[in-house]
Design goal:
Structural class: alpha+beta
CATH class of one domain: Alpha Beta
CATH topology of one domain: Ribosomal Protein S8, Chain: A, domain 1
Protein name: PNO1 second type I KH domain-containing protein
Family: Belongs to the PNO1 family.
Distance between the termini: 160 Å
Pfam family, one: KH_PNO1_2nd
Main location: nucleus
CATH superfamily of one domain: K Homology domain, type 1
CATH architecture of one domain: 2-Layer Sandwich
Strand order of the largest sheet: 3-5-4
Largest sheet: 3 strands, antiparallel
GO molecular function, one term: RNA binding
Order of helices and strands: HEEHEHHEEHHHEHHHEEHH
Shape: globular
Number of helices: 12
């Protein structure tokens, strides 16, 4: 029994292990936290923690960079845009070379067709271009897109007294259904004879596009043609219209 107790006491006693020797640490190797010190009003030193957030680099803006395209982008180009209706895409494609020739050769303008916006864009070759020629080119393209032939529309470029005018039948008299169709038929006439007679007597060109009417000619001639067409819309008999046109033609012949 005594031997067992002695063994138990021996096991319960702690074993002395050798401790590693302590090493002296230099105070210079210990990094102290950086503290910004400021004096308080009472003389105390106030400690502020440094902001350890990472500062992002400053991005350069367009204002800081020199303008490389200063001479080109800052020019105010004078431009005209003419929208192309869907039913005039094919005629424009077929007659593009004829349409462009007088604008480039006679007016000295730049022209292109924008496929994305479906517009014909015309601009002056420089900032000091002739605005009158630019407007003439836009009117010429607009006349072709309204339905006039290039041979007739080119008069807007070559003559200063040529104008273009458009109006609707409902602007003269409100008509619907068959009444509107009969009014268009009276203006055109059988096989287009009434329309051709008005054009030859008044020396104008007329385009009938559904209920819209487009006129091209001199100012006084446009006035006579418009009055004749309005009379047909209001219901004046065609015989009376022909009589008025014959008398007008005789007066014009006497003046010449």
């Amino acid at each position: 029994m005594t031997s067992r107790k002695n063994e138990k006491n021996v096991q319960d006693q702690p074993v002395d292990e050798e401790m590693p020797p302590l090493e002296d640490i230099d105070d210079e190797l210990i990094e102290e936290p950086q503290i910004n010190e400021e004096d308080d009003d009472d003389g105390f030193i106030l400690a502020k923690k440094t902001n350890k957030k990472r500062k992002l680099p400053k991005l350069s803006t367009d204002a800081d960079q020199p303008d490389a395209k200063k001479g080109k982008d800052n020019v105010n180009w004078e431009m005209r845009k003419v929208s192309v209706p869907p039913h005039r895409y094919t005629p424009l494609k077929k007659n593009w070379s004829k349409l462009v020739a007088p604008i480039i050769n006679e007016l000295k303008m730049q022209i292109r067709y924008n496929l994305r916006t479906r517009n014909v864009e015309i601009r002056c070759p420089n900032a000091d271009g002739n605005k009158t020629h630019l407007q003439k080119a836009a009117d010429f393209v607009q006349a072709f897109l309204l339905g006039f032939t290039i041979e007739d529309a080119v008069a807007l470029i070559r003559f200063d007294h040529m104008f273009m005018e458009s109006f609707e039948i409902n602007d003269v008299k409100t008509l619907r259904g068959d009444h509107l169709s009969r009014a268009i038929g009276r203006i055109a006439g059988k096989d287009g004879r009434v329309k051709t007679t008005i054009e030859s007597v008044t020396q104008t060109r007329i385009v009938l596009a559904d209920d819209k009417i487009h006129l091209l000619g001199a100012f006084n001639n446009l006035k006579i043609a418009r009055h004749t067409i309005c009379s047909l819309i209001m219901g004046t008999p065609i015989n009376k219209i022909h009589g008025n046109l014959r008398s007008l033609a005789s007066r014009l012949a006497e003046q010449l």
